[in-house]
Design goal:
Blueprint lengths: L1 E6 L5 E9 L6 E5 L12 E2 L4 E9 L3 E8 L2 E3 L6 E5 L4 E7 L1
Antiparallel strand pairs: 1-2, 2-5, 3-6, 4-5, 6-7, 6-9, 8-9
InterPro entries: Glyco_hydro_13_N (IPR004193), Ig-like_fold (IPR013783), Ig_E-set (IPR014756)
Organism: Lutibacter aestuarii
Protein name: Isoamylase early set domain-containing protein
Amino acid sequence: MAIKKQYLKSKPICKVTFTVPAEDAKEVAVVGDFNNWNAKNSNLKKLKNGTFKGVLDLEKDNTYEFRYLVDGNYINDEQADSYKWNDFANTENGVLNL
């Protein structure tokens, strides 16, 4: 998995590219507090090589909790900036520092 951050000079936005290798998966989405944990608007597109990829514009100078939803199963990105325990989900979420 990979996370790429590109900060815009003209706006307080960071373009975050999420890449998830999941050849056997049918659907992958990135969910977090930036989209109210809603997978409907955050599906990643499957590329020919089996990798899922997508870009989100997120406000910089913020911290976001997130996870991937791969065919209905939540997983963390090993390249997250850090991890934070979530009592509601009873697990750790990845943290993205912008």
